[in-house]
Amino acid sequence: MKTEVKETPINLQANTSQRDFIDRATALTDVQYNAFVEALELPVTDNEGLKRLLNRKFPWD
User: Fold this and answer.
1) Which residues have C-beta within 8 Å of that of residue 1, sequence separation ≥ 6?
2) How far apart are CA 14 and CA 16, in angstroms?
């Protein structure tokens, strides 16, 4: 999946740590941003814990 860069404002409620994370992400250099996107686009490795989590029935299902 290729990441598409979009330039549009969003409004959301976030706690302080989430806001700080977003602020840090928006301050990345081009090199840091590209490395971040490449890491996101790597294939998912086999993860038994993740499989169990994704196969659980959640209350909202």
Assistant:
1) 41
2) 7
Residues in the chain: 61
Q: Largest Cα–Cα distance in the chain?
A: 41
Which tokens sit at 1? 């999946």
pTM > 0.70: yes or no: no
Cα separation, 25 vs 33, in Å, equals 8
List the end-to-end C-alpha distance of the chain, in Å, as a whole number.
Answer: 26
Q: Are 41 and 2 in contact (CB under 8 A)?
A: yes
pLDDT tens-digit series, residues 8-52: 888 889 999 999 988 888 888 899 989 989 999 999 889 999 899
